[in-house]
Amino acid sequence: MLTLVERHKLKGIALVGDAFDLPLLEALRGRASERDLSSVTSITSASAMWSASCKEALLTYFLNVTLRDSLGSSEGSRLASAEMRAGQGAETARFGLGAHVRVFDAEFREVVPGSGVPGRIATRGAIPLGYHKDPEGTAETFPVIDGERWSMPGDWCTVEADGSIRLLGRDSLCINTGGEKLWPEEGEEAYKTFPGVRDAAVFGMPDPRWGHIVSAVVHAPLSLALPGLRAHLEAVLARFKHPKTIRRAHASFRASNGKLDYSAARALFEEGEEHG
Fold first, then answer.
1. H or E segment at 240?
2. Where are the alpha helices (DSSP H) in the chain?
3. Of 17, 1, 109, nearest to 55 (Cα)?
4. CA–CA separation, 56 vs 87, rounded Å?
5. Distance between CA 230 and CA 205 in Å, rounded?
6. Which residue, 9, 44, 101, 182, is the most exposed by fewest CB within 10 angstroms?
7. Structure pTM?
8. 76 near 123, Cβ under 8 Å?
């Protein structure tokens, strides 16, 4: 791909989150001076999480680029987007809502910016009629609020005082452990900031006492010191969000389209080497 960029002076690159940019970063690391990437002005990503650490790393190699991260789903596109450029910290490159998008709390009240109340992202307008032969799923995902029909794919966030949003995660992946609700994406991004971790998946495993316990599998080489990863998590993640068990996988748990396959991750976790 990098050879094609140079040969044709390409202006844009499309990725699917970290599954695509991690191999790209590996190819550039230590050899970026051999490449002329100055023609590229745009790198876009959709359909999977694009971690802040990977975005920042890409901007050290693609100096003229604007990174564009898009949030959407089959049930409602153009939910939110974020842009980032060289010299701009990831914390300031927050997602902004689309023109027809709002955020509603669990009682279907619009979330007040700066309140800290979590809510589901909703869009209106050109949205699907529903799910085929699934009236219950249709009613849940496409509610009518104040006489208007909305699409709520299940993405949760909080709304900052300036109107930007802080993504929490998809409700279908939410882990309920001892009454606390945790979203896997926060942990997955934290793990991938540790050197050597290529990918991470976080999920709940059934537990008689807690309902579910936080568990994780990381795609990493044998040389990775998991105790070091534990120490790293202490610095970047609240203690109650730490996994009870981390296991190492030597194979990827991504689908061919780049999305994280949680079924494959769970299978690899059950087969993996035990690390408390």
1. none
2. 2-8, 18-28, 52-58, 135-141, 184-191, 226-236, 262-271
3. 17
4. 9
5. 19
6. 9
7. 0.81
8. yes
> What tens digit of pLDDT does each residue of 234-271 get?
999 999 899 999 999 888 999 988 889 999 999 999 88
CA distance 21 to 112: 35
pLDDT in tens, 196-221: 898 999 999 999 988 999 999 999 88
Q: Are 204 and 220 in contact (CB under 8 A)?
A: no
Angle at alpha carbon of residue 78, lines to 254 and 127, rounded to 5°: 100
CB 43 within 8 A of CB 68: yes
What are the DSSP E strand ranges found in 106-250? 119-123, 144-145, 148-149, 155-159, 165-170, 175-177, 180-182, 199-207, 211-219, 245-249
Residue with tokens 């994280």: 260
